Amino acid sequence: MYPYGITTVFFLCKPTGGSFTENDETIASGYFALDDLPELSEDKGSKKQVEMCFKAYHNPNWQAEFE
Questions:
Q1: By C-alpha distance, which of 13, 14, 12, 15 is closest to 56?
Q2: What's the pLDDT tens digit per position in 15-36?
């Protein structure tokens, strides 16, 4: 079976409380500067995607991107 029509969506969120709990998909959580990212699992997301999120966050006129 092959995946077709995969969609990736990024959301800007603000923490409101609670704490991280290790789970089946993620073993740790943290905040990182763009130039201090840990090694990424490239099958889940890329540095290019993270860079795009930083650009969007710092640009109040950012427009959604579609491929």
A1: 12
A2: 899 999 999 988 889 999 999 9
3-state helix, strand and coil shares in percent for the chain, rounded to the nearest 5: 20, 0, 80
Mean predicted lDDT score pLDDT of the chain: 88
Q: Residue range 5-15: average pLDDT?
A: 86
Residues near 38 by beta carbon (within 8 Å), at least 6 away in sequence: 30, 32
Alpha carbon distance 38, 4 (integer Å):
29
pTM: 0.72
Dihedral angle at the C-alpha atoms of 52, 12, 29, 18, nearest 10 degrees?
Answer: 170
Three-state secondary structure call for residue 32: coil
